[in-house]
Amino acid sequence: xxxxxxxxxxxxxxxxxxxxxxxxxxxxxxxxxxxxxxxxxxxxxxxxxxxxxxxxxxxxxxxxxxxxxxxxxxxxxxxxxxxxxxxxxxxxxxxxxxxxx
Amino acid sequence: xxxxxxxxxxxxxxxxxxxxxxxxxxxxxxxxxxxxxxxxxxxxxxxxxxxxxxxxxxxxxxxxxxxxxxxxxxxxxxxxxxxxxxxxxxxxxxxxxxxxxxxxxxxxxxxxxxxxxxxxxxxxxxxxxxxxxxxxxxxxxxxxxxxxxxxxxxxxxxxxxxxxxxxxxxxxxxxxxxxxxxxxxxxxxxxxxxxxxxxxxxxxxxxxxxxxxxxxxxxxxxxxxxxxxxxxxxxxxxxxxxxxxxxxxxxxxxxxxxxxxxxxxxxxxxxxxxxxxxxxxxxxxxxxxxxxxxxxxxxxxxxxxxxxxxxxxxxxxxxxxxxxxxxxxxxxxxxxxxxxxxxxxxxxxxxxxxxxxxxxxxxxxxxxxxxxxxxxxxxxxxxxxxxxxxxxxxxxxxxxxxxxxxxxxxxxxxxxxxxxxxxxxxxxxxxxxxxxxxxxxxxxxxxxxxxxxxxxxxxxxxxxxxxxxxxxxxxxxxxxxxxxxxxxxxxxxx
Lengths: 101, 494
Known about the structure:
heterodimer; A: Helix Hairpins; B: mainly alpha; 74% helix
């Protein structure tokens, strides 16, 4: 059986990749995908940590809630991107620069 | 039966939201004027029920434990229920005047207000990582949509985009922190995590990373510097009642989460020590938040954006109160709760007065727009002055006692340097608040410039009257509400 540590390392790598992607990508769609990768890392971590605690399934149940809530969040996020595209004709976050100090 | 009773504030708002959504779906186009009224009534009912539950007392209701650990119903929760309903109600009243004036009256706005408030109330009650997450998402998703509400406005879309991206990023950081906490303690309920952290003594590296991630996620949500970048843009892009809502309700919900999570999970001596805990980090960020926000707020040309930075600065004062929990949790928390109450009514009033000063095609935005308001429209200028004085923290308004109790909590905990910095900051802040008054009373608009004329709306007037009553009551007789804050804070021992 694959040890739990491997999954935890996988989730840490995924989380870092997502975080770096969020910080360096300027295309909003790619940024959204990076956030999704980070949340998937959370899911992997929760489910993996549940392995050593056989008395309950809290971690796995958390995964289901996370998937559902994130679907809702992304729906709103994409709607916002769409409305930005309608008025500005761009999906790049560095071109959304009307609001400044 | 008793269980339904202690849950009633939450259920009233949730049920009212569902009913109004049905009513909106079946109402005729153009017959939606009643929605603002209906929404305000739902919030008022939520407020009344909270006060009722408060007066009855939740400690004697053993059934409330049936919901533990998912929802914790105690005086802290009920205090926030009342506070959130108050803020939501004020925002709904303002929306009732603002949306028709700018011709963006659509029913969704009120539904978003109601459901986001349900999320915030859930957040205040959350006693498990799962309910914290669900409450946070319910509140945040509503707030994102409120920001993007003016669909034809590029500013609205841009503000919402920044808010959404950074909000979702913060949620991911927070959740990963929770996942690591689950991994290192085996608990998802906050009390269980707190117990395990206390037992463990020396923290494992995983716990330290978890603490850092949770802290950063929480600070993003309360918009502390340097995690505040989204705040001014989102506040400026949102329609002004939406801004009011974010400044009042979303901020209060975020602080409820911050207090509950930090003090329950990391409330032990080890995590709260000056050498190895979170208070020093929070103290540094509190200083940064107040100073940076106040300095930038002073340079703004737009009053709305100035108020947005002022809301960031207020998060800094609130963090001073949170740091003071290091020595006395009850005193620190009670000062934060009372400050939130005074801040909610003052900021809602200030944004409301800004709404009142403008009309379609002539929305009051810059300081120049307000020039001469004191002579042309004394009531609007008077209301604006009252709320700004309260935000500045001068007597005899609510803001004075809010600052007073936070500073005293910091002094009693021995944080003299922090108190002095906070005090100096509130002196600096007086400059940009009073600048509005100078423009309103001592300047005249240049000849031929477009002049802002106040709108006429019963809803906005009602919201302003209500906040003015609260601001003056809390500023003159703060005793009873302070006692409520102290009782609510007593759920955190020590």
